[in-house]
Amino acid sequence: MIQKYYNGKPSYGDDFDYILISRMKLDKETSDNILHDVYSNNYDVALLFGRQGIIAFIYGILIKLSLSVKKGKILPFGTIYSKNAYDYLLSKNIIPDMEKNMILGNVLLLKNRSFQHKSFYTNLKCTENIRFTDFLDLTIKRGNMFKYVIVGISGVFVNEGMLLLLHVPLGQVLSIIPAIEVSIIYNFVLNNRFTFHGRGHFYLRLTKYNLFNLIGFGANLGVYYSALYYKTNIYVADFLGILVAFIITYTTATMIVW
User: Fold this and answer.
1) How far apart are CA 63 and CA 147, in angstroms?
2) 3-state secondary structure at position 16
3) Are 143 and 67 in contact (CB under 8 A)?
4) Neighbours of 94 (CB within 10 A)
5) What DSSP line would sit under 217-251, residue for residue?
6) Does the reported pTM lie above 0.70?
């Protein structure tokens, strides 16, 4: 089960502070060493991290991009509390628990400057703690990536329509320029309204969106021609170019433009 928190409280809505996608089981030697370090240095909170599996790593990246999370997430896999920290959590009606309240307790304690904490990075492998249905819910139902793709597909038809209208008066060479620009503006308006629900700085955002889309277009061409140079199938080369362009445009859109 995925654990989501918003403003320090368990959340089942679209907004959240942190997501827990992995868990870790400590062996006795590692646990004893960490406990000794914590108690000897009088830390209030110790956050334990391990090696994420490839699935959790990919999930984390895609969830972060799809939900436009610009700040990094704390993903602790285990927590040790001092008696002082434990009493503080109890005063907030939170019972420190490895499953339900782990992140919530960490958020409250780390926001309280009177508590000392330390992160321990172990070499232990963590197991995934997120179901595939949760992943789909966050990336498709709640996220922006799927809506961004739909807008992009509709933008292709706008591009083709502009080419159809302009290729006779402007010619095949020049007609592609306004066609690309009109489709970029079209995509921006729809993404600004429906995908990211943008507020303020409309023209500045449009300028940045234009810039990054042109960079993506250049990368598309570069990958396409490079793939052809190495005797790649033309359709495979086209797909690779589109994929690279999508990664660039969506990443910059969700992290910089909006």
Assistant:
1) 14
2) coil
3) yes
4) 17
5) HHHHHHHHHHHHHTT--HHHHHHHHHHHHHHHHHH
6) no
pLDDT at 95 over 60: yes
Share of the chain above pLDDT 70, in %: 84
Mapped to the 3 state alphabet, what secondary structure does 30-81 carry?
A: HHHHHHHHHHHCCCCEEEEEEECCHHHHHHHHHHHHHCCCCCCCCCCCEEEE
Six token digits for residue 56: 């959790």
**φ, ψ of residue 65 in degrees (nearest 5):** -70, -45
Q: Kindly state the tokens that stand for 204.
A: 């500045």
Question: Which two structure tokens, joined as six digits, stand for 123?
Answer: 């070499």
- Residue at 209: amino acid letter: Y
Distances (CA, A) of 189 to 101, 159, 198: 41, 15, 10
Cβ–Cβ under 8 Å, residues 217 and 239: no
Q: What DSSP assignment string belongs to 97-122?
A: -SSSSHHHHHHHHHHSTTS-EEEEEE
Q: Which two tokens stand for residue 222?
A: 């570069």
pLDDT of res. 1 = 42
